[in-house]
């Protein structure tokens, strides 16, 4: 369980971009974050990933007070949380398989990033994960040859192979066609049913309604909606 209590994020010398945010995300839950541009959606994800410092608040993950136990908490976030960029950062000259195996600077020791070396017994798990995401036939293709949707699925596979229990996805379907967008959200939903927790910024509220277990709405850095298991009403959409 992930519990956020009274998260506030102020830019040093600047505005408050998140104000008094509290919510709980349970294991296997698909949580969508919706709101207008500039409402603080991406900043919220970065705070959950500890890529941005919290000004105030309490952050508990599976009973661990992350901010009060900095080294233990940071290690836990580093091991168990994966941040999926809007445009995944892959090595263009490496194959999809090698991108999955090597990981990112947040997941992988520096020596492995530089050399690309992996253990032989890692390959089968990576291939199984690529197959699960419909990318087995793309395993040997270089990342630069993949479509936007395929690159997103490679990034998801990479997170899973490196042990992610929580996926923080920042607009994972941005710029993709409707069919590909739905396929990626369908994949994420299926992974949630296997125990992965997904917290995703979704720009299209209709897709958030279709695939989410829960919708969190932000407006100017404040939480204005926390809706579970149903579509948003017209009045609720007007709050965003």
UniProtKB/TrEMBL annotation:
Pfam family, one: ABC_tran
Matching SMART domains: AAA (SM00382)
GO cellular component: plasma membrane
UniProt xrefs under PROSITE patterns: ABC_TRANSPORTER_1, ABC_TRANSPORTER_2
GO molecular function: ATP binding; ATP hydrolysis activity; transmembrane transporter activity
Keywords on record: ATP-binding, Nucleotide-binding
ABC transporter domain: residues covered: 2-240
Highest taxon listed in the record's lineage: Bacteria
Entry protein name: ATP-binding cassette domain-containing protein
Species in which this protein is naturally found: Paenibacillus roseus
């Amino acid at each position: 369980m992930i519990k956020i209590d009274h998260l506030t994020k102020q830019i040093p010398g600047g505005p408050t971009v998140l104000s008094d945010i509290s919510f709980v995300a349970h294991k296997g839950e698909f949580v969508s974050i919706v709101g207008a541009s500039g409402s603080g959606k991406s900043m919220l994800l970065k705070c959950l990933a500890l890529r941005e410092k919290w000004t105030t608040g309490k952050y508990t993950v599976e009973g661990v007070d992350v901010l009060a136990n900095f080294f233990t908490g940071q290690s836990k976030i580093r091991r168990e949380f994966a941040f999926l960029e809007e445009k995944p950062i892959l090595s263009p000259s490496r194959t999809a398989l090698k991108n999955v195996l090597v990981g990112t600077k947040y997941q992988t020791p520096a020596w492995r990033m530089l050399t690309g070396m992996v253990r032989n017994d890692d390959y089968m798990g990576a291939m199984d994960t690529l197959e699960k995401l419909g990318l087995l036939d793309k395993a040997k293709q270089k990342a630069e040859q993949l479509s936007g949707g395929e690159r997103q699925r490679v990034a998801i596979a990479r997170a899973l192979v490196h042990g992610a229990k929580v996926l923080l996805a920042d607009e994972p379907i941005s710029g993709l066609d409707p069919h590909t967008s739905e396929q990626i959200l369908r994949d994420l939903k299926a992974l949630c049913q296997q125990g992965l927790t997904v917290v995703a910024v979704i720009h299209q509220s209709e897709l958030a309604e279709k695939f989410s277990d829960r919708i969190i709405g932000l407006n100017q850095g404040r939480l204005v909606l926390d809706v579970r298991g149903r579509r948003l009403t017209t009045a609720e959409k007007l709050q965003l």
